[in-house]
Amino acid sequence: MQDRDLQPVLSVKELSVRFGRGAVPAVSNVSFDVGRERVGIVGESGSGKSTTGRAIMRLLPPAAVVTAERLDLGGDPLLAKSERQMGALRGKDIALIMQDPRYSLNPVLSIGKQIAEAARLHLGLRGKPAQDAARAMLERVRITDPERVMALYPHQISGGMGQRVMIAMMLLARPKLVVADEPTSALDVSVRKDVLLLLDELVRENNSGLLLISHDIRMVAAFCERIIVMYAGRIIETLTSLEEARHPYTRGLIAALPDPKNPVRRLAVLDRAKLDLEAAQ
Ligand SMILES: Nc1ncnc2c1ncn2[C@@H]1O[C@H](COP(=O)(O)OP(=O)(O)OP(=O)(O)O)[C@@H](O)[C@H]1O
C-alpha cells in the first residue's frame, strides 16, 4: 500500500486557464505537486496566482477555459467532477480561505450557526453535537469567549477574529488541502502573524497540505517549505529558500519588500526593462 504521506495531496500537470477562447492565457502550462507540506505561490499582481488557486477549487467563472493533463486531489481527478460533486468536496476535502473574512462569511447568519452548518454538511452532525463541535473549534482557534462569539454576526467581529472563524470553519472537517489566497492581506498588521501561525499550526496538526498564495515572498518563505514563483501565468522558478533565488524577477520581488532584519530607506522597484524574462515566455 502506498504511504499516505508520500502520495501528493494535489498533483497539477500542464494546467492552463484562458478567459475566453483565443484570449492570452492567464495561467500557462503550470505543473507542481503539494504533499502534506506547505507550498507557497508568489508573484506580482496579475501573475496568475489566484487563477491557479481557483482553478484547483473549480471556482472560476464560466468564461474560464481550464485544461490540464492532470489536476488530482488525492489521486482523484477534479476536472472530471460534476459541479454537485465539487460542492460536496469543497469544505470537506479541499478548503479555501480568502482574503477578507467579511466577504466570505454569510452576513445574515450568526457565527455559531455558520460553523454548526459546516459541521452538519461535512461531519453529518446536527443539534447539540454540531453546536459542541462549533464551540470546540472556536476554542481551538483560541477564541477565548466562544459562547459570546457564536451569537455574533460577521459585521460585529474584527477582521482578525473573522479570519480565525474562517479557519475554524474551513478546518473543521480536516481537509486534505487548504488553499489560502492572501489570507492576511486584509488584516491589521498586528494580527497577521498570529493568524498565519494559527493556520500553520492547524494544517500541521491535521496533516493537510497548504497552498499559500501571496504577493509577499518573505512571508511565504517564513511559512513554506517550497516557494513557486509565477510571472505572466508561468512558473519561472521554485525555491526552498530566498537565498536560492536566481531569476532577476524573483530577486526583484524580494528587493521590493521590506526586510525587517535589514531596514532600508528606499525600497527597490521592479524594473521590467532589466528583466530577462525570456525564460518565462
Ligand atoms: N474573471 C476574469 N475574467 C477575465 N480575466 C481574468 C479574470 N480573473 C483573472 N483574470 C486575468 O487573469 C490574469 C491573472 O490574474 P490573477 O488574479 O490570477 O493574478 P494574481 O497573481 O492572483 O493577481 P492579484 O494578486 O492581483 O490577485 C490577469 O491578467 C487577470 O486580468
Describe the structure.
The protein is of the alpha/beta class. The protein has one domain (10-108, 153-280): 3-Layer(aba) Sandwich (Rossmann fold), CATH 3.40.50. 35% of the residues lie in helices and 21% in strands. The chain is built from ten helices and eleven strands. The protein has helices at 49-57, 83-89, 101-104, 111-123, 127-140, 146-150, 159-171, 189-206, 217-223, 248-255, and strands at 10-19, 27-34, 38-42, 64-67, 70-73, 76-77, 94-97, 177-181, 209-214, 226-231, 234-239. The strands form two sheets. It has a six-stranded mixed beta sheet with strand order 7-8-9-3-10-11, sandwiched between helices. Strands 1, 2, 4, 5 and 6 form a five-stranded antiparallel beta sheet that branches. Strand 5 and strand 6 (76-77) form a beta hairpin. Helix 4 (111-123) crosses helix 5 (127-140), helix 5 (127-140) packs across helix 7 (159-171) and helix 7 packs parallel to helix 8 (189-206). It starts with 9 loop residues before the first strand and ends in a 26-residue tail after the last helix. Adenosine-5'-triphosphate (ATP) is lined by residues 19, 26, 43, 45-51, 61, 215. GO terms for molecular function: ATP binding; ATP hydrolysis activity. This is Peptide/nickel transport system ATP-binding protein. Belongs to the ABC transporter superfamily. Its main location: membrane. It is a peripheral membrane protein.
